[in-house]
Amino acid sequence: MRWLGIAGMIVLGLVWHFDSLERNAASAGIRSTSQQSATDQSDEAPEGRRAGTVVAESEAALRAQLEFLSRQVGDLRVQVEQAERAALRANRAFLEAQGKLDSALKPLEREMFSSALRAAVESDHTVVTGGYQVPGGGIEYTLFKPTLMMEEGKQVIMLEGKVMRVQREQVDSLGLSTLQTNADNTLQHGEVWSPAEAGRFDSKIKTFGSGIDILSSPRVVLSNGQEAQIEIGNYKAILKATVPEKGGAIQLDLRTEQRKAGESDSP
C-alpha cells in the first residue's frame, strides 16, 4: 500500500509536470504568435509609409508638370497674340504702302505731268521738283520751303511755295538745267537747296524782266504729320510734313500733278 501511495504520488507529479510543460509550451506558442504578428505589422508599417511617400511624390511631380505646361500654354498664348498684332500692323503697313504706290502711279495712268518725291529737309531749306515741259513751251517747277515754328504753344510746319514756269532759254541762267527732264512723270526727281542757294535763286528771278512766270505762291501751315492739298486750276500739290520724335530734318512728301495739252494748262 505504501508503495502504491508513493507510485501514485510519482504519477501525479509526472502528470502535473507534463501539464506544466504543455501550459508553458502553449504560453510560449501564444507569445510567439503575438510576437510574429507584431513583427509582421511592424514590417508592414514601413512598407505602407514608403508607398504613401511614393504616391505623394508622384502627385507633386504631376502638379509640377501641370504648372510647367500651364506656363508654356500661357507663354504660347502671349506669343500668338503678339504675332497676330504684328500681322495686323504689317497688313496695315502694306495697305498704306500700296495706297501710296497707287497714288504715286495714278498720274502715269492719266493724261498728266507729275512728280513725286520724299526728302529729308532742314528747316528753312527748299525742295525743288518738276522740270517737265508743259503746253506753251515753258518748263514748270515747284519749290517748297518748310519752316518750323511755334503756334499757340504747339510746334507746326509752315510751307511756303512757288509754282513757276520758266522759258527754255532762261533755264540755264537760273541754274535749273539739272532738273529739266523729258519724262512726263518722275519719282524722286528733285533737289534740296540751302537758304543761301535759295536766296541767290530769288535774286536772279528779280533780275529777269521776262521769261519767268510765278503762277502761284501758296502758303500752308501743317501740324506734325498732317497732309494738305493745294489746287490751283489744273495744278495740284499734295504735301505732308513730319518731324521725327527725336528731332532732326523734316520729312517732306511732295507730289505735284498738272494736266496735259487738250485741257487748260494754266494753274
Topology:
Elements: H1 2-105, E1 112-121, E2 126-133, E3 138-151, E4 154-167, H2 168-171, E5 185-187, E6 190-193, H3 195-207, E7 212-216, E8 219-223, E9 227-232, E10 235-242, E11 250-259
Parallel strand pairs: 1-5
Antiparallel strand pairs: 1-11, 2-3, 2-6, 3-4, 4-7, 4-8, 9-10, 10-11
What does this structure look like?
With 267 residues, the chain is an alpha+beta fold. The chain has two domains: 1-109; 112-259, no CATH class. Helix content is 45%, strand content 33%. It is built from three helices and eleven strands; from the N terminus they run αββββαββαβββββ. It has helices spanning 2-105, 168-171, 195-207, and strands at 112-121, 126-133, 138-151, 154-167, 185-187, 190-193, 212-216, 219-223, 227-232, 235-242, 250-259. The strands form two sheets. Strands 2, 3, 4, 6, 7 and 8 form a six-stranded antiparallel β-sheet that branches. A hairpin with a 2-residue loop joins β9 and β10 (235-242). The radius of gyration is 52 Å and the shape is elongated. The N and C termini lie far apart (170 Å). The model is unreliable at 1-18, 24-40 and 262-266 (pLDDT under 50).
